[in-house]
Amino acid sequence: MKTFKHEPPVKTVYDVFIERGFIEKVTDEGKVPEILEGKVTCYIGFDPTASSFHVGNLVPIMSLTHMQRHGHQPIALVGGGTGLVGDPSGKDEMRQILTYDEIAENAESQRKQFSLFIDFSGDKALLLNNADWLTKLNYINFLRDIGVHFSVNRMLATESIKIRLETGLSFIEFNYQLLQAYDFWHLFKYHNCLIQMGGSDQWGNIVAGIDLIRRLEGKQAYGITFPLIMTADGKKMGKTEKGAVWLDSQRTSPYEYYQFWINTDDRDVERFLALFTFLPMEEVKECGKLKGADLRTAKEVLAFEATKIVHGEEEAEKARSASRTLFISVSDSISMQGSVTAKVNVGDSIPTTSMDKQKFIEGIPAFKLFETTGLCASGSEARRLIEQGGAYINNRRIDKFDEPIKLEDFDSNGTISLRVGKKKYHRIKLKNS
Q1: Residues 6+ positions from 97 with CB-CB distance below 8 Å
Q2: What pLDDT digit, counting tens, does each position of 197-234 carry?
Q3: Do 160 and 49 fall into the same domain?
Q4: DSSP output for 259-271
Q5: Domain membership flag for residue 342
């Protein structure tokens, strides 16, 4: 009897989005999966409010990459025009208005970071700036041609607008929805863009764009939104005590970036592997099965893969090596129950501060060092940390906040290692040593 080998059905990008946890809402749950079986053009807009993306921007950026990997054409839209207005969505107060020069500079920085994720060669993807069309609009013509299609009552019912009405919404921000809708229409008309994607706070803006396209072109467009990613302990993804975790290595070093991921809450590891790496889901699920001490292996995979995407494999290797060295050092220190351990040279990946040798002849109070290096936000915070037993120098717990740290505390290479708890490290290196 003849048998037939049945190949498993090929996953569409929609299947991947569902499987990896990207989708919160779609405008047409029947049609969107269907059109994603063919090749489509999609876009996401990113207003250049900073000179670098941060971890909180990764979900939309990763989604564009998945679209491209499945044969679709993504458009990364730099909001050089909308950035001059400021999106009120998801904000309690008006964004700081940036100058034209600041917006242009930030937009150029974003262009470079997009290339870490998306291949713009040929027509595989487009990198556009809405300043190219928005800054050329005639205000009266815009009101007559575009504004006439918007209902103020419907705009006021939009969730992002309703929230801001309680704290105050400027007229310039109220116009933002019209501009974003115009973007979608422009990309639909001139680049055949069928889908706009974005965070959950963009739902109202996306729907407004779809409605404008229907009114102006008599055709249908679609939208997909992603959930706001919160950590298991209820914090917004990418926010730390020190602020945002940036993709720019000058603002967040590859080592610090790696440390952010390896310190992921145990409950988030599998979810973050699915969202922020390109590992096959089979591997993601295997990592998710690890428990207890073995879970550190899964966290290492997450940290390495996430760092490799942004900073390259070489920097990811360096960060992993430095992290392992420190982890072993801390483990040894704990196992020796507080005895003084050998000073460890952990390489160049650790955040480092250079200080004059002369300052340590008489000694610097320990709490001052923790403040100077940024491990603590203030001297009083550093005092409390030391008094509570959470500060270490060369893996030796500091008992007195004003203990003088002198030259004899440095190793033969002129360095000492500072640590807060088990996870935050900093190194001080003597100048001219």
Answers
A1: 84, 86
A2: 999 989 989 999 999 999 999 999 999 999 999 888 88
A3: yes
A4: HHHHT--GGGHHH
A5: no
Residues 78 and 130 occupy one common structural domain: yes
To which residue do tokens 């989005």 refer? 17
Q: Which of residues 269, 303, 335 is at a domain's end?
A: 335
In the chain, the number of structural domains is: 3
With 70 as the cut, is the pLDDT of residue 335 above it?
A: no
Query: CATH number for the domain including 105?
Result: 3.40.50.620
Distance between CA 80 and CA 146 in Å, rounded?
A: 20
The DSSP output letter for 54 is: B
Q: Do residue 395 and residue 286 come from a single domain?
A: no
Residue 289: which domain range?
239-335
For 252-289, what is each residue's pLDDT tens digit? 999 999 999 999 999 999 999 999 999 999 999 999 89
CB-based contact 201:90 (threshold 8 Å): yes
For 292, counting Cβ atoms within 10 Å of its Cβ (0-12 exposed, 13-18 middle, 19+ buried), the class is exposed
- Contact call for residues 134 and 182 (beta carbons, < 8 A): yes
Distances, alpha carbon 110 to alpha carbons 46, 107, 252, 284, in Å: 9, 5, 16, 29
Angle, CA of 76, 194 and 106, to the nearest 5°: 15
Looking at the structure, tell me whether residues 65 and 207 fall in a common domain: yes
Residue 2 lies in a domain: no
Task: Report pTM.
Answer: 0.74
CA 167 to chain centre: 27
Burial annotation 397-425 (CB, 10 A radius, 16+ → b, else e)? ebeebebebebebbeeebbbbbbbeeebb
Q: Which of 306, 335, 364 is the last residue of a domain?
A: 335
User: Which residue has 């048998």 as its token pair?
Assistant: 3
Answer whether residue 75 is part of any domain: yes
222-226 and 25-26: which strand pairing?
antiparallel
DSSP E strands, 40-116:
41-46, 73-78
Q: Based on the fold, state whether residues 297 and 405 are members of the same structural domain.
A: no
Specify if 7 maps to a domain: no
Question: Is the domain of 96 the same as that of 131?
Answer: yes
For residue 399, what are the CA distances in angstroms to 58, 338, 367, 393, 426? 41, 12, 11, 11, 19
**Quick one: the chain helix, strand, coil %, rounded to 5?**
50, 15, 35
